[in-house]
Amino acid sequence: MSDKRIIVLMHEDLVPPEAVERPKILATAEWKTEYDVVTELRKLGHEVRTVGVARDLTPIRDAIVDWKPHLAFNLLEEFHGVAVYDQHMAAYLELMRQPYSGCNPRGLMLAHDKVLCKKILTYHRIAIPDFALFPRGKKVVRPKNLDFPLLVKSATEDASLGIAQASVVGNDDKLQDRVAYLHEQHSTDALVEEYIEGRELYVGVLGNSRLRTFPVWEMSFSGMPEGAAHIATAKVKWDHNYQTKHGITTAAAKHLPNGAAEQLNRLSKRIYKTLDLSGYARMDFRLTPEGKLYVLEANPNPNLAHGEDFAESAAHAGLKYGELLQQIINLGLQYRAQWKLA
């Protein structure tokens, strides 16, 4: 492995300090992922520069033109505050003929357009919850085939933004209220889908054409109050105190039904290829008490922080954090973008 010049692209508000004097701060810092990646890349011997981006492409262009990096390690999740614009960040890197880590623009578009993604998976006969889209400005009329309970979430936002216990609704009045909340408070269309009771399972996938899956991971809701829905709300994902209070943990899934792990691995690879993903991704599933699997979401470029689900499942498979990041770098360098084929 030869050392590389690497720019790490991130939101300008998440550029981490060079060093953390009090390690306890790191556990809850918003820039933990960025700090972990930059620190580990330097440990691997790479020459690293951070590039903060928010509303201007100039910092990316200047870094590419002036420094000629071997790779852009892409941690951007939005542009102009719009989550679905992450695909355009990858597209810009391709237009600049700059190798980058993570998913390609087409895969980001197909996966992050949640309604389109569900339509594609349905076409390929991959089981998903029944769903309907409620655009802003349109009357909320529940289709007859959509039965309660229902889960109401944003059609475009990631990281569980807008998802809370109130997102699971049991009648038309609550459905109207929650859709209105998303329309008004988050300025987003509402995606309403059948709420699937069951185990929350994740599968990490790594690769471009040749794919590797990591051990099935599970989110446990063991300490949630009686009657609370077992869903990955924003608090469940990001509030450390809430996680501790309610026993929210993730670990390798145990006591899966016979053949379920193999089925999850095959299905994850199939979804990855169907959506033209590259680099790395995490597939989210629900396993019902009857043993049926439903795909909830495909997540290209998932959270890469040390200690989070993707990195932990890789470690469980024997791939240490630094080795994981190096493989992601290698995949980015090897990815056959169209400009390389011209």
> What is the fold named in CATH at topology level of the largest domain?
D-amino Acid Aminotransferase, Chain A, domain 1
Helix and strand element order: EHHEHEHHHEEEHEEEEHHEHEEHHH
* Whole-number tally of structural domains: 3
Tell me the CATH superfamily of the largest domain.
ATP-grasp fold, B domain
N-to-C CA distance: 27 Å
Number of helices: 13
Going by helix content, strand content and strand pairing, the class is alpha+beta
Radius of gyration: 20 Å
Helical residues, percent: 25-40%
In oligomeric terms, what are we looking at?
single chain
The CATH architecture category of the largest domain equals: 2-Layer Sandwich
Low-confidence stretches: none
Largest beta-sheet details: 6 strands, antiparallel
Q: Beta-strand percentage? A: 15-25%
CATH class identity of the largest domain: Alpha Beta
Summarize model confidence as the mean pLDDT: 93
Described by the principal axes of the CA atoms, the overall outline is globular
Structure summary, number of beta strands: 13
Overview of this protein structure:
This protein has 342 residues and is of the alpha+beta class. It folds into three domains: 5-102 and 337-341, 3-Layer(aba) Sandwich (Rossmann fold); 129-194, Dna Ligase, domain 1; 197-333, D-amino Acid Aminotransferase, Chain A, domain 1. Helix content is 36%, strand content 21%. The chain contains 13 helices and 13 strands. It has helices spanning 23-28, 32-43, 58-67, 86-95, 105-112, 114-123, 172-185, 234-238, 240-245, 260-274, 309-316, 321-334, 338-341, and strands at 5-11, 47-53, 71-74, 131-134, 150-154, 168-169, 190-194, 199-207, 211-213, 217-221, 248-252, 279-287, 293-300. Strands 8, 9, 10, 11, 12 and 13 form a six-stranded antiparallel sheet that branches. A four-stranded antiparallel sheet has the order 4-7-5-6, covered by helices on one side. A three-stranded parallel sheet has the order 2-1-3, with helices on both faces. A hairpin with a 5-residue loop joins strand 12 (279-287) and strand 13. Helix 2 (32-43) packs across helix 12 (321-334) and helix 4 (86-95) runs antiparallel to helix 5 (105-112). The protein is globular and about 60 Å long. The model has no long low-confidence stretch (mean pLDDT 93).
